[in-house]
Design goal:
The protein is of the alpha/beta class. 39% of the residues lie in helices and 24% in strands.
Length: 296
């Protein structure tokens, strides 16, 4: 049977200059996981409105499985502004459906057979969704081949030290970028040392399987007990970077689930995310050649 890989958190519409596109890091992660042959599933909540219906229709068109309970709040949207270098900034609507995601029996059952989950800090800004995410993550077994990925994804003011601390306790893989590492270092009082040493500290302190550090054009790192991988960032013509990080995470996770080494998984993740940067939107169809590299 195929392995279940879940993205849980925000499902929303990115309102881009060229029009709206489906978004939200968990859905992006689940979609790319499904392109690699896994049973990708997006878990979130939608409103009883036209935008919610469009999310379901879009996921159906992409053959993406989902659990999207309808709640009495509007479906989420994000205003996205892309600068001249293709870098997005976000204005995230508050008090929306994904802030009120209930923990259902279907979610509990899905967690029991999941091989991997990816979650972030953003969707935990709402108390109900935070409880649901933590319950889901806790319900997944702690096996050698199971990954609970905390893609920290700090946005605006939508995070607290407590949310991050609890997430670090229950994940086994941390993904963080260089700017977020600075904020977390200040928040948790990490020593004034270089980025690599800070990642080693986080790896040991929270007994993690891996810490993934992305540094934009300056490359990315993966730290694991007794092992470190570095990959340079490829130069591509950037359409936009929306969803590129999520494709990186999905590719890295899928590669590990296909028994690739950390170094090979890292290399493939960089290659796929570079391709996504060259495309518009967060969910482009990946070339068959890239998918074959991950699955072979």
């Amino acid at each position: 049977m195929k392995s279940v890989v879940v993205g849980i958190g925000e499902a929303l519409w990115d309102m881009l200059p060229e029009g709206k596109k489906i978004g939200g890091a968990p859905a992006n992660f689940a979609y790319h996981s499904s392109q690699f042959g896994f049973d990708g599933c997006a878990i979130s909540a939608i409103g009883k409105d036209a935008l919610g219906t469009e999310i379901i229709e879009t996921f159906d068109s992409k053959n993406l499985h989902y659990l999207l309970p309808q709640v009495s709040h509007p479906t989420g949207t994000v205003q996205v502004i892309i600068d001249s270098e293709g870098i997005p900034t976000y204005d995230i609507e508050q008090n929306v459906a994904w802030d009120y995601m209930p923990f259902t029996q279907e979610m509990r059952q899905l967690a029991l057979c999941a091989r991997a989950v990816c979650f972030g800090s953003l969707a935990q800004r709402g108390i109900e969704s935070r409880h649901t995410i933590m319950q889901f993550v806790k319900s997944i077994a702690d096996g050698d081949g199971q990954f609970k990925i905390f893609d920290i994804n700090l946005r605006q003011e939508f995070y607290t030290k407590q949310i991050i601390e609890d997430s670090l306790k229950y994940c086994n893989v941390l993904k963080i970028n260089d700017e977020e590492l600075i904020l977390i270092s200040e928040m948790f009082g990490l020593p004034d040392i270089d980025m690599e040493d800070k990642c080693w500290i986080l790896l040991a302190k929270y007994n993690l399987k891996m810490v993934i550090l992305t540094c934009g054009v300056n490359g990315s790192y993966v730290f694991a007990p007794g092992e470190m991988s570095f990959q340079e960032t490829p130069q591509v013509i950037v359409a936009d970077t929306v969803g590129a990080g999520d494709s990186f995470t999905a590719t890295f996770c899928a590669s590990l689930l296909y028994d690739k080494s950390i170094k090979d998984a890292h290399k493939l993740a960089v290659e796929v995310s570079a391709y996504v940067c060259s495309q518009h939107g967060a969910m482009p169809i990946l070339p068959a050649s890239l998918i074959k590299k991950v699955k072979s």
